[in-house]
Specification:
The protein has helices at residues 20-165, 181-191, 284-287, and strands at residues 173-178, 195-201, 208-214, 225-233, 245-253, 261-269, 275-283, 298-306. By secondary structure, it is an alpha+beta fold. The chain has a four-stranded antiparallel β-sheet with strand order 1-8-5-6, with no helix packed on it. The chain has a four-stranded antiparallel β-sheet with strand order 2-3-4-7.
Length: 311
Protein backbone atom coordinates (compact mmCIF):
# COMPACT_ATOMS: atom_id res chain seq x y z
CA UNK A 1 0.00 0.00 0.00
CA UNK A 2 1.06 3.62 -0.62
CA UNK A 3 0.52 6.26 2.12
CA UNK A 4 0.06 9.07 -0.46
CA UNK A 5 -2.61 7.16 -2.48
CA UNK A 6 -4.78 5.49 0.16
CA UNK A 7 -5.01 1.72 0.92
CA UNK A 8 -4.07 0.44 -2.56
CA UNK A 9 -1.23 1.43 -4.82
CA UNK A 10 -2.22 2.26 -8.31
CA UNK A 11 0.05 1.33 -11.19
CA UNK A 12 1.96 4.33 -12.50
CA UNK A 13 1.15 3.69 -16.11
CA UNK A 14 -2.52 4.10 -15.44
CA UNK A 15 -3.21 7.85 -15.69
CA UNK A 16 -6.95 7.57 -15.60
CA UNK A 17 -9.15 7.15 -12.56
CA UNK A 18 -9.65 3.54 -11.18
CA UNK A 19 -13.03 2.07 -11.29
CA UNK A 20 -14.49 -0.34 -8.70
CA UNK A 21 -13.97 -3.35 -10.94
CA UNK A 22 -10.31 -2.47 -11.38
CA UNK A 23 -9.86 -2.30 -7.63
CA UNK A 24 -11.60 -5.65 -7.12
CA UNK A 25 -9.49 -7.32 -9.80
CA UNK A 26 -6.38 -5.87 -8.31
CA UNK A 27 -7.33 -7.10 -4.83
CA UNK A 28 -8.11 -10.59 -6.11
CA UNK A 29 -4.72 -10.73 -7.82
CA UNK A 30 -3.02 -9.75 -4.59
CA UNK A 31 -5.01 -12.41 -2.66
CA UNK A 32 -3.98 -15.11 -5.15
CA UNK A 33 -0.37 -14.04 -4.82
CA UNK A 34 -0.62 -14.19 -1.04
CA UNK A 35 -2.20 -17.66 -1.19
CA UNK A 36 0.56 -18.92 -3.46
CA UNK A 37 3.17 -17.49 -1.15
CA UNK A 38 1.49 -19.11 1.86
CA UNK A 39 1.26 -22.48 0.05
CA UNK A 40 4.90 -22.27 -0.93
CA UNK A 41 5.84 -21.45 2.66
CA UNK A 42 3.75 -24.36 3.93
CA UNK A 43 5.46 -26.72 1.46
CA UNK A 44 8.87 -25.57 2.59
CA UNK A 45 7.83 -25.95 6.21
CA UNK A 46 6.49 -29.48 5.54
CA UNK A 47 9.76 -30.45 3.82
CA UNK A 48 11.74 -29.05 6.71
CA UNK A 49 9.53 -31.03 9.09
CA UNK A 50 10.13 -34.25 7.07
CA UNK A 51 13.88 -33.64 7.04
CA UNK A 52 13.74 -33.12 10.81
CA UNK A 53 11.88 -36.46 11.24
CA UNK A 54 14.38 -38.23 8.98
CA UNK A 55 17.23 -36.73 10.99
CA UNK A 56 15.59 -37.91 14.22
CA UNK A 57 15.12 -41.44 12.80
CA UNK A 58 18.76 -41.54 11.68
CA UNK A 59 19.85 -40.44 15.13
CA UNK A 60 17.69 -43.10 16.75
CA UNK A 61 19.04 -45.81 14.40
CA UNK A 62 22.57 -44.64 15.12
CA UNK A 63 21.90 -44.79 18.84
CA UNK A 64 20.39 -48.27 18.54
CA UNK A 65 23.30 -49.56 16.46
CA UNK A 66 25.73 -48.04 18.92
CA UNK A 67 23.87 -49.70 21.78
CA UNK A 68 23.92 -53.08 20.01
CA UNK A 69 27.62 -52.76 19.20
CA UNK A 70 28.30 -51.85 22.80
CA UNK A 71 26.23 -54.82 24.00
CA UNK A 72 28.08 -57.13 21.59
CA UNK A 73 31.45 -55.86 22.77
CA UNK A 74 30.36 -56.20 26.37
CA UNK A 75 28.93 -59.71 25.76
CA UNK A 76 32.09 -60.82 23.95
CA UNK A 77 34.28 -59.55 26.73
CA UNK A 78 32.04 -61.16 29.33
CA UNK A 79 32.08 -64.48 27.42
CA UNK A 80 35.85 -64.37 27.16
CA UNK A 81 36.11 -63.73 30.87
CA UNK A 82 33.71 -66.62 31.61
CA UNK A 83 35.61 -68.96 29.29
CA UNK A 84 38.90 -67.98 30.89
CA UNK A 85 37.43 -68.71 34.31
CA UNK A 86 36.08 -72.07 33.12
CA UNK A 87 39.47 -73.00 31.67
CA UNK A 88 41.15 -72.04 34.91
CA UNK A 89 38.62 -74.16 36.83
CA UNK A 90 39.18 -77.14 34.50
CA UNK A 91 42.96 -76.84 34.78
CA UNK A 92 42.65 -76.69 38.55
CA UNK A 93 40.36 -79.77 38.58
CA UNK A 94 42.79 -81.71 36.35
CA UNK A 95 45.66 -80.77 38.63
CA UNK A 96 43.65 -82.04 41.60
CA UNK A 97 42.95 -85.34 39.79
CA UNK A 98 46.64 -85.73 38.94
CA UNK A 99 47.54 -85.22 42.58
CA UNK A 100 44.91 -87.78 43.62
CA UNK A 101 46.21 -90.33 41.10
CA UNK A 102 49.79 -89.73 42.20
CA UNK A 103 48.76 -90.25 45.79
CA UNK A 104 46.88 -93.47 44.91
CA UNK A 105 49.81 -94.93 43.06
CA UNK A 106 52.11 -93.99 45.89
CA UNK A 107 49.74 -95.73 48.33
CA UNK A 108 49.63 -99.10 46.50
CA UNK A 109 47.57 -98.55 43.38
CA UNK A 110 50.64 -99.38 41.30
CA UNK A 111 50.70 -102.82 42.87
CA UNK A 112 47.04 -103.35 42.05
CA UNK A 113 47.66 -102.22 38.47
CA UNK A 114 50.46 -104.76 38.16
CA UNK A 115 48.19 -107.48 39.54
CA UNK A 116 45.48 -106.51 37.04
CA UNK A 117 48.01 -106.64 34.21
CA UNK A 118 49.17 -110.08 35.37
CA UNK A 119 45.58 -111.33 35.56
CA UNK A 120 44.92 -109.99 32.08
CA UNK A 121 48.01 -111.77 30.79
CA UNK A 122 46.82 -115.00 32.40
CA UNK A 123 43.35 -114.63 30.87
CA UNK A 124 44.88 -114.02 27.45
CA UNK A 125 46.96 -117.17 27.85
CA UNK A 126 43.86 -119.16 28.81
CA UNK A 127 41.98 -117.73 25.84
CA UNK A 128 44.79 -118.74 23.50
CA UNK A 129 44.68 -122.26 24.95
CA UNK A 130 40.91 -122.34 24.48
CA UNK A 131 41.20 -121.10 20.89
CA UNK A 132 43.80 -123.79 20.14
CA UNK A 133 41.47 -126.41 21.62
CA UNK A 134 38.57 -125.19 19.49
CA UNK A 135 40.75 -125.19 16.38
CA UNK A 136 41.76 -128.79 17.14
CA UNK A 137 38.09 -129.70 17.62
CA UNK A 138 37.23 -127.99 14.35
CA UNK A 139 39.90 -130.00 12.56
CA UNK A 140 38.51 -133.19 14.12
CA UNK A 141 34.97 -132.32 13.02
CA UNK A 142 36.22 -131.47 9.54
CA UNK A 143 37.91 -134.86 9.25
CA UNK A 144 34.75 -136.57 10.51
CA UNK A 145 32.70 -134.60 7.98
CA UNK A 146 35.04 -135.72 5.21
CA UNK A 147 34.62 -139.31 6.38
CA UNK A 148 30.82 -138.87 6.39
CA UNK A 149 30.93 -137.42 2.89
CA UNK A 150 32.98 -140.40 1.69
CA UNK A 151 30.61 -142.79 3.43
CA UNK A 152 27.61 -141.00 1.92
CA UNK A 153 29.16 -141.28 -1.53
CA UNK A 154 29.77 -144.99 -0.90
CA UNK A 155 26.15 -145.47 0.21
CA UNK A 156 24.94 -143.70 -2.92
CA UNK A 157 26.99 -146.09 -5.03
CA UNK A 158 25.55 -149.02 -3.10
CA UNK A 159 22.03 -147.70 -3.68
CA UNK A 160 22.73 -147.45 -7.39
CA UNK A 161 23.98 -151.05 -7.40
CA UNK A 162 20.92 -152.19 -5.45
CA UNK A 163 18.63 -150.40 -7.90
CA UNK A 164 20.37 -152.21 -10.70
CA UNK A 165 20.08 -155.59 -8.97
CA UNK A 166 16.65 -154.94 -7.48
CA UNK A 167 14.86 -152.31 -9.56
CA UNK A 168 11.96 -150.49 -7.93
CA UNK A 169 8.47 -151.79 -8.69
CA UNK A 170 7.07 -150.36 -11.89
CA UNK A 171 3.56 -151.82 -11.94
CA UNK A 172 1.97 -149.64 -9.23
CA UNK A 173 2.13 -152.44 -6.64
CA UNK A 174 4.47 -152.57 -3.64
CA UNK A 175 4.56 -153.85 -0.06
CA UNK A 176 6.25 -151.82 2.65
CA UNK A 177 7.70 -153.73 5.62
CA UNK A 178 7.89 -151.48 8.72
CA UNK A 179 10.10 -153.24 11.28
CA UNK A 180 11.26 -152.14 14.76
CA UNK A 181 7.75 -150.75 15.10
CA UNK A 182 7.91 -150.07 18.87
CA UNK A 183 10.99 -147.81 18.58
CA UNK A 184 9.66 -146.05 15.49
CA UNK A 185 6.32 -145.50 17.27
CA UNK A 186 8.09 -143.98 20.30
CA UNK A 187 10.20 -141.73 18.06
CA UNK A 188 7.07 -140.52 16.29
CA UNK A 189 5.42 -139.65 19.61
CA UNK A 190 8.50 -137.82 20.86
CA UNK A 191 9.81 -136.08 17.75
CA UNK A 192 7.07 -136.47 15.11
CA UNK A 193 9.41 -138.60 12.98
CA UNK A 194 8.13 -139.37 9.47
CA UNK A 195 9.01 -142.79 8.03
CA UNK A 196 9.92 -143.02 4.34
CA UNK A 197 8.71 -146.03 2.40
CA UNK A 198 9.70 -147.50 -0.97
CA UNK A 199 9.71 -145.47 -4.17
CA UNK A 200 7.85 -147.02 -7.12
CA UNK A 201 6.01 -146.10 -10.31
CA UNK A 202 2.50 -146.86 -11.44
CA UNK A 203 3.86 -148.28 -14.73
CA UNK A 204 7.20 -148.61 -16.52
CA UNK A 205 8.51 -145.07 -17.04
CA UNK A 206 5.40 -143.81 -15.25
CA UNK A 207 4.57 -141.43 -12.43
CA UNK A 208 6.97 -141.50 -9.45
CA UNK A 209 5.22 -142.57 -6.23
CA UNK A 210 6.25 -143.11 -2.60
CA UNK A 211 4.66 -144.14 0.70
CA UNK A 212 5.37 -142.27 3.95
CA UNK A 213 3.90 -142.83 7.41
CA UNK A 214 3.39 -140.91 10.64
CA UNK A 215 2.92 -143.63 13.26
CA UNK A 216 1.50 -141.18 15.81
CA UNK A 217 -0.95 -139.67 13.35
CA UNK A 218 -1.30 -136.43 11.43
CA UNK A 219 -3.54 -133.46 12.23
CA UNK A 220 -6.93 -134.56 13.57
CA UNK A 221 -5.69 -138.16 13.83
CA UNK A 222 -2.64 -137.34 15.99
CA UNK A 223 -2.44 -139.65 19.00
CA UNK A 224 -5.18 -142.07 17.91
CA UNK A 225 -4.27 -143.38 14.44
CA UNK A 226 -1.40 -143.92 12.06
CA UNK A 227 -1.57 -141.92 8.84
CA UNK A 228 -0.16 -143.49 5.67
CA UNK A 229 0.57 -140.97 2.93
CA UNK A 230 0.77 -141.59 -0.81
CA UNK A 231 2.96 -138.98 -2.49
CA UNK A 232 3.36 -138.27 -6.21
CA UNK A 233 6.72 -136.62 -6.91
CA UNK A 234 8.26 -135.08 -10.01
CA UNK A 235 9.91 -137.93 -11.89
CA UNK A 236 12.53 -138.40 -14.59
CA UNK A 237 9.98 -139.21 -17.32
CA UNK A 238 7.40 -136.48 -16.60
CA UNK A 239 7.87 -134.84 -20.00
CA UNK A 240 6.61 -138.05 -21.64
CA UNK A 241 3.48 -138.34 -19.46
CA UNK A 242 0.04 -136.76 -19.57
CA UNK A 243 -0.85 -133.96 -17.17
CA UNK A 244 -2.48 -133.39 -14.84
CA UNK A 245 -2.29 -136.94 -13.57
CA UNK A 246 -4.97 -138.59 -11.45
CA UNK A 247 -3.85 -141.56 -9.34
CA UNK A 248 -6.21 -143.88 -7.52
CA UNK A 249 -4.70 -146.19 -4.92
CA UNK A 250 -5.80 -148.85 -2.43
CA UNK A 251 -3.72 -148.77 0.75
CA UNK A 252 -3.99 -151.95 2.85
CA UNK A 253 -2.72 -152.81 6.32
CA UNK A 254 -2.08 -156.51 5.75
CA UNK A 255 -3.45 -158.90 8.36
CA UNK A 256 -0.73 -161.41 9.25
CA UNK A 257 -3.15 -163.82 10.87
CA UNK A 258 -6.54 -162.39 10.04
CA UNK A 259 -8.40 -159.90 7.87
CA UNK A 260 -6.67 -156.88 6.36
CA UNK A 261 -7.79 -153.26 6.50
CA UNK A 262 -8.02 -151.39 3.16
CA UNK A 263 -8.51 -147.68 2.51
CA UNK A 264 -8.77 -145.94 -0.84
CA UNK A 265 -7.08 -142.65 -1.71
CA UNK A 266 -7.18 -140.54 -4.86
CA UNK A 267 -4.97 -137.57 -5.72
CA UNK A 268 -4.23 -135.27 -8.63
CA UNK A 269 -0.93 -133.61 -9.51
CA UNK A 270 0.01 -131.01 -12.12
CA UNK A 271 3.28 -131.30 -14.01
CA UNK A 272 4.82 -128.15 -12.54
CA UNK A 273 4.03 -128.82 -8.88
CA UNK A 274 6.78 -130.45 -6.83
CA UNK A 275 4.52 -133.06 -5.28
CA UNK A 276 0.95 -133.99 -4.44
CA UNK A 277 -0.01 -135.89 -1.29
CA UNK A 278 -3.04 -137.62 0.27
CA UNK A 279 -3.27 -139.88 3.30
CA UNK A 280 -5.46 -142.53 4.93
CA UNK A 281 -5.83 -143.10 8.68
CA UNK A 282 -5.98 -146.45 10.50
CA UNK A 283 -6.76 -146.47 14.27
CA UNK A 284 -4.00 -147.50 16.67
CA UNK A 285 -6.18 -150.17 18.23
CA UNK A 286 -6.34 -151.90 14.82
CA UNK A 287 -2.62 -151.47 14.04
CA UNK A 288 -1.48 -152.66 17.49
CA UNK A 289 -3.69 -155.74 17.45
CA UNK A 290 -1.96 -159.15 17.12
CA UNK A 291 -3.71 -159.57 13.80
CA UNK A 292 -1.56 -156.87 12.16
CA UNK A 293 1.47 -156.44 14.45
CA UNK A 294 3.72 -159.47 14.85
CA UNK A 295 7.43 -159.68 15.62
CA UNK A 296 7.44 -155.90 15.98
CA UNK A 297 6.60 -155.58 12.27
CA UNK A 298 3.65 -154.47 10.15
CA UNK A 299 3.14 -154.65 6.39
CA UNK A 300 1.50 -151.95 4.26
CA UNK A 301 0.48 -152.73 0.69
CA UNK A 302 -0.43 -150.23 -2.01
CA UNK A 303 -1.92 -150.78 -5.46
CA UNK A 304 -1.93 -147.62 -7.59
CA UNK A 305 -3.68 -147.18 -10.92
CA UNK A 306 -3.59 -144.31 -13.39
CA UNK A 307 -7.02 -142.71 -13.85
CA UNK A 308 -5.76 -139.84 -16.02
CA UNK A 309 -7.34 -141.02 -19.28
CA UNK A 310 -10.62 -142.12 -17.74
CA UNK A 311 -13.63 -139.89 -17.62
Amino acid sequence: MDDNKGFFAVPEENDGPLGPMDIIAYVENNIRSLRMAIADANLKFYRLFEQQDELIRCCNSTNQMGSKIYDMILTSQTRQLIEKKQLKDEVAAMQDQIQILQKRFSDGEAKKANESANNATLEISELKTRIQYLEDQNDTYRRQLDCCAQRFSSLQNQIVELNVRHPMPSNGHTIWRIFNFAKAFADSKESNVILKGPVFTNAPYGYKLQLTANLNGHGYFRGNSITIHLVVYSGPYDNLLKWPCRINAKVTLIGQCGPSRTREVELTKSQHSNKAERFVAIPHKVVLSPTHLQNDTIFVEVKATDETNRG
